[in-house]
Amino acid sequence: PRAKADVPAGVTVCQLCLVSATPGATPGDTLLLTRLERGAEPVSVRIATERGQAPLSGLLRELERIQREQRDANACTERREWWERRSRLDLRMQ
């Protein structure tokens, strides 16, 4: 498929989609995580959220906060502070 050819060499794209796993299921009851790399088949993992340990809405809010803080960190011009922010964000993503 074309998406594989559009990804630059050396770049990994992770796509997170909120989907319904089966017809008639609760809308947005499943997360679909897909990894795209040039020259490789896409890898997708389905993550059911109905009986998850954390509410999906809370996880999505945290992801939005992390993305916002990453944008702020990218504007940081001091190298040490940038790395400290980046390390804290990496830990939160784990």
UniProtKB/TrEMBL annotation:
GO cellular component: centrosome; cytoplasm; mitotic spindle; nucleus
Residues in coiled coil: none
GO biological process: meiotic chromosome separation; proteolysis
GO molecular function (one): cysteine-type endopeptidase activity
Signal peptide start-end: none
Entry-linked Pfam families: Separin_C
InterPro entries, per the entry: Peptidase_C50
Top-level lineage group: Eukaryota
Official protein name in the record: ESPL1 protein
Gene name of the record: Espl1_1
